[in-house]
Design a protein that fits this description.
Blueprint lengths: L1 H26 L10 H17 L4 H11 L2 H13 L4 H10 L1 H5 L3 H12 L9 H8 L7 H14 L2 H13 L6 H10 L4 H10 L6 H12 L6 H8 L6 H13 L3 H12 L5 H10 L6 H8 L7 H13 L4 H8 L4 H10 L4 H23 L1
Length: 371
Amino acid sequence: MNIIIQIYMIMCVILLVFDIGFLLTKNINKMKFFKKNNKFEKLVKKEIKKREADGEFSMGFLIKLPKELSKTQNLVALQNILNENQDAKVWFKSVIFSLVDVYKQKSDYDQAFYIYVVSTLGYNEPVPADFASQFFGFLDSKSLYTFSNTMDALYAFSEEGLLVSAVDKVNEREGFYHKKLFVDGLLTSNVDKESFIKKLIERFDTYNVHTKEALLDYFRMTNVDVSEFCMKLLNLKSSESEIVYACMRYFVKKPNAASKEYSLNVLKTETADWVKQMLAIQALKTYNDNEVVSAVKSKITDRNWYVRINALEYLVANGLDSDDIKEIIELNDKYAMETLLYLFKNDEEKSKLISEVLEKAEKTVEEGVTV
């Protein structure tokens, strides 16, 4: 048996070494290290000072600049300089734009860096239409880095038409681009969110479930009111569970009368799954009328931990007192008791009360068995 285990361990080590070697060999050609071009760097700094003093670059510099920046090594040097001199970015923008076709012919690494530079240039006005059309083509890349950097640039452009088309592309490449990057990126854009979201809602039915879920998360994190649209989705029997949950999360953050009624109906429906029940309780947290309290209280004995803990947290937030705790303990429900002990594990007074009531209950049970 020991020999078999040793052979197995040796084989595992061999396979691990092989995998590491294979990955290194596969990616070594994509790894690039650029030697610092001090001569070009000095020239750029000199020309920036000239531009600041005289209002223009030298003609010779302007003529040679496109060719120099077609080398990724020099683009790296320029980016480092512009990081220290933000005001100079606008002076190089048109030249960098003109190189889009040049960098489309380069490797994934070169493309990704070029796109990254474009995304950092700052935008207060629309980018040229011909450049935007060519640049958008980077979204067809098989490289995730290239795709992700292109999306970052499009967020920075903040142009509604381009962003709507970008959402279509994300939808087309289902699962290629992470939802968090997508939602966070949309939130950074300075696009008119109300107009943009209106366009997305018009096209909503054309998107797959993953894109829909991401967009609903984005809607929730903006100040745009889409409550009517979300309620419409909730009332559609054909809505996928991911869409239902996303809409319910919207109402957790932005509850209204319609969502209150919907959430109460969820808690009254025995077949509702635990996620819907949990979200329904969360969406009712701003209400404390008798109907809501009663509906939530009925969930403290639910078999699902998340439903129970949310129900008890709601009751605590709405003034759960010692008599209420005794009432819960007297239910003699192990699920409710487990959650109650967890919730008050750091509250010495309530923990003591729970323990005392539990001891009395156990003693009563023992006495009954003895009799």
